[in-house]
Design brief:
The chain is an all-alpha fold. The protein has one domain. It is 92% helix and 0% strand. The radius of gyration is 18 Å and the shape is elongated.
């Protein structure tokens, strides 16, 4: 569970940092405004995919832990 959470948080943090970098860089270089727009469009798809992956991993982990505790009794 910790591994899935670490991966999800890391991926979201890295992508968010890249978006913020593009956003602030576009203030002084308006020629990359299209890149900023594209990054926000990608994030509309990217973030839900990461959260769905994380949710699936957590659900699988809970199912495995429930099975192993039922087997041990």
């Amino acid at each position: 569970m910790v591994n899935a959470t670490t991966k999800a948080v890391s991926v979201v943090a890295i992508f968010s940092l890249a978006q913020l970098t593009l956003l602030f860089y576009s203030i002084s270089h308006p020629s990359i405004d299209d890149w900023v727009t594209i990054s926000f469009v990608i994030s509309i798809v990217f973030y839900p995919v990461v959260f769905a992956y994380h949710g699936k991993r957590i659900k699988d982990w809970k199912d495995r832990s429930t099975e192993s505790s039922a087997d041990s009794n």
